[in-house]
Amino acid sequence: MQPTEDRYREILRKYWGFDDFRGIQREIIDSICSGRDTLGLMPTGGGKSLTFQVPALAMKGVCIVITPLIALMKDQVMHLRKHGIRAAAIYGSMMHNEIITTLENCIFGGIDLLYVSPERLSSELFQTKLKHMKVSFITVDEAHCISQWGYDFRPSYLKIADIRKLKPGVPVLALTATATPLVTDDIQEKLAFKEKNVFKMSFERKNLAYIVRRTADKQEEMIHILNSVSGSAIVYVRSRKRSKEISGLLNKCGISATFYNAGLEHVTRDSRQTEWQNDKVRVMVATNAFGMGIDKPDVRVVIHIDSPDSIEAYFQEAGRAGRDGNKAYAVLLYNNSDNGKLEKRINENFPEKDYIKKVYEHLAYYYQIGMGSGLGHKFEFNIDRFCYTFRHFPVQVDSSLKILAKAGYIEYEEDSDTKARVRF
Ligand code: ADP
Ligand code: MG
């Protein structure tokens, strides 16, 4: 029997203390609870999490939640447990025994929500245990990661369709803030939806003012803005080096700031994010590595001192301001040299086909003659040396590697500024 209407609201009040659903939350919940594959499109901060968390409590069985980031997973599970909800996660750094115990808890009905990474889906242990599990439905968070047309493609998301085959009849709830037609069609196709079924909410953010400001001196303008708007802020920059520089500059001007980029150790990144999250530091100066899973409600301003790669990326990054619904600002600073820079970036990000092919051939050659250190099929090489031998620019090589990875020719893992790991 379907849980009744009021049951959902009861759950919402009991566990979260919220009065009512907002936007299209209710429609999405009704759709998934009636057993239909469902795609929910809601902007960042729109409240996607509740659309699977509430039905997970209302329905019998475990809701499997696939999310791309371990940090995000841990965060949500901790949050849910605080509310007295039986949630669990499995991730790589857990002990084997712990993983088994968690999966068995799911089989014996002790868990309502199980968070897993997409990579986990292909593990034999997981698949074996899954067979014995009563699954209410499968949630695919950040579902745009399944699409090559999206800006955050993860090949491992494609494995979700295989899992569906193991659990026929179990519906899928896909959620994302990326609403381009190409991506939404692709998500439904790649997830093997029985029929198309999309719910879309307005992406307008009424409390967020978007401002584009042309200025000869971006740094001065940035400082001016940060001195005029109080509260938590993010400044997005293009390079790791610049994140450090701008953060230094702000501190010199008496504005407390820290910086974040993919070149930093995980522990450093986590501690900086926490400091900022807890208002120990006011401004986070970051590259686009500071992204998914940031849920600070009271960010008052997001400044882009450099232009991002795409409108989609801009909307996501700017959208981190004002999640609490109070007035917030998204400011894009630009000057005359930005156009040229953007054009150059397009050329770097999308090298010619022949160029990509050459990179691949060189890579295979390196691998064959044993340059770099090979561990099994995983092969680590010094990217500077590779670029030097190859007489080309690291950015283009890097783009080529990413494109090759997207197309499934290689697996590519960026390690640090100088090293990369490739698996053929
Ligand atoms: P998304 O995943 O879409 O970016 P979240 O699920 O993280 O958004 O929700 C954003 C914020 O909105 C959270 O702080 C959440 O508690 C709040 N929220 C969601 N739904 C409701 C609701 N019905 N009533 C009040 N607050 C809500
Ligand atoms: Mg979310």
TrEMBL record:
The protein's name: ATP-dependent DNA helicase RecQ
Transmembrane segments: none
Annotated ranges, domain Helicase ATP-binding: 29-197
Family membership noted in the UniProt record: Belongs to the helicase family. RecQ subfamily.
E.C. number(s) listed in UniProt: 5.6.2.4
All residue ranges annotated as the Helicase C-terminal domain in the record: 221-367
Gene Ontology molecular function terms on file: helicase activity
Native species: Xylanibacter caecicola
Class in the EC hierarchy, top level: isomerase
Catalytic activity: Couples ATP hydrolysis with the unwinding of duplex DNA by translocating in the 3'-5' direction
UniProt keyword terms in alphabetical order: ATP-binding, DNA-binding, Helicase, Hydrolase, Isomerase, Metal-binding, Nucleotide-binding
